[in-house]
Amino acid sequence: MELKNLIETHLDLPRLSKDLDEIGHAARVWATRHWERDTQARLWEAAKGFRPVTLDDYVPPGVASLTEVITWGMNTLPVHNHFQKRFARPSDPEVKDRLVGYNHQSLSGLTGPGYYVAHPAADEGEVDIDYTMAPTEKPAAWPTIVPNSSRLGVLIYHGMVDVMRGVSSHVSIGRARKKSGWLDAWFILVREDPAQAS
Fold first, then answer.
1. Closest to 186 in 3D by CA, of 57, 54, 81
2. Which among 80, 1, 81, 96 has a CA at the least distance from the CA of 40?
3. pLDDT tens digits for 135-194?
4. Which residues, in sequence order, are CB contacts of 5 under 8 Å at separation 6+?
5. What kind of fold does domain 5-196 have according to CATH?
6. Do 118 and 132 form a contact (C-beta atoms < 8 A)?
7. Beta strand pairing call for 99-104 and 161-166
8. How far is residue 172 from each of residues 55, 153, 190, measured CA to CA in Å?
């Protein structure tokens, strides 16, 4: 059965979460790339309070500082909707409430890398991917840190915060907001375990 049926036909988050945990990374990415706008919007609303998501869901414990962890994304834009958010833990071992990251996608030459800081959200059990905060360090292989107000990034990343909710141990769903309020923009992230990274 296609996992989307567990959202659209009869919303069954516990079953969906269990099934996502039991299939491999490639199957998780394949399944979530069939979740279109209405599916993602419904799932984001339903995921409120379902499974607390923490920074460990993006960079698991034991991963060394400034080591890249990739999440595979699918957003609800009409085009260019496949991307990656790449996360890393800061080098200071005392900094336990922050991750650094950027967006890896095909239009980065025009938009900039879209750097952010991830931190616990105001609502318990959620994580903010916060483009209003700029990292001060990054893994050496990542692109140069530039302000989100530069290039076309001012239209996309500038002033934005993505609010993440948990779906399974590897899958989370986010919705974007700016000062003006919530945007009609959702996306799925699927974490790739570091050992699987190519």
1. 81
2. 81
3. 999 999 999 999 988 877 677 899 999 999 999 999 999 999 999 999 999 999 999 998
4. none
5. Lipocalin (2.40.128)
6. no
7. unpaired
8. 11, 24, 7
